Amino acid sequence: MAKHENRHHEINYIEFAVRDLSEAKRFYGDAFGWKFTDYGDAYVGIQHPYTDGECGGMHQAEEVSDGGPLVILYSEALEQSLASVQQAGGDVTAEIFSFPGGRRFHFADPSGNQLAVWSDK
User: Fold this and answer.
1) 3-state DSSP helix/strand/coil percent for the chain, to nearest 5?
2) Rounded to the nearest 5°, which phi and psi values hold at 52?
3) Separation between Cα atoms, residue 36 and residue 44, nearest integer Å
4) FRET pair for 10, CA 20 to 30 Å: which of 3, 49, 70, 80?
5) Nearest to 118 by CA among 70, 69, 75, 71
6) In the chain, how many H helices and how many E strands?
């Protein structure tokens, strides 16, 4: 695996507050195949899928705000991603819709974090 190079003004790391760390790991692992590095009982790093290192993390929190940043994931197969999110227990908050440049859907994870998945296909 290649080492990730940091670039000026690049989104480098996204951190989620989650109510149940084990459930969050299960959800993201089942929905997207994410892998994690455990750092104790209250924090995990999200392993970068294509380079050495991490691209984000999740920490245990008693309360999770719905007003966090919208993290948008890319998918080569949008309908399959939607099905995976639903099968893993995600709450689809906006069904697949078109926008200039592609299509996407929005969902809430089991802790209430709002995310989106888009595709140019």
Assistant:
1) 20, 40, 40
2) -70, 145
3) 6
4) 80
5) 75
6) 2, 10
Give the separation between CA 88 and CA 98, rounded to whole angstroms: 24
What is d(CA 61, CA 39) in angstroms, rounded to the nearest whole number? 15
Q: What is the CATH number of domain 2-119?
A: 3.10.180.10
In single-letter form, the type of residue at position 36 comes to F
**Do the beta carbons of residue 66 and residue 115 sit within 8 Å?**
no
Strands 91-99, 36-38: pairing kind? unpaired
The encoded tokens of residue 78 equal 């949008």
pLDDT in tens, 57-103: 999 988 887 667 788 899 999 999 999 999 999 999 999 999 888 99
Please name the amino acid found at residue 101.
G
Confidence of residue 110 (pLDDT cuts 50, 70, 90): very high
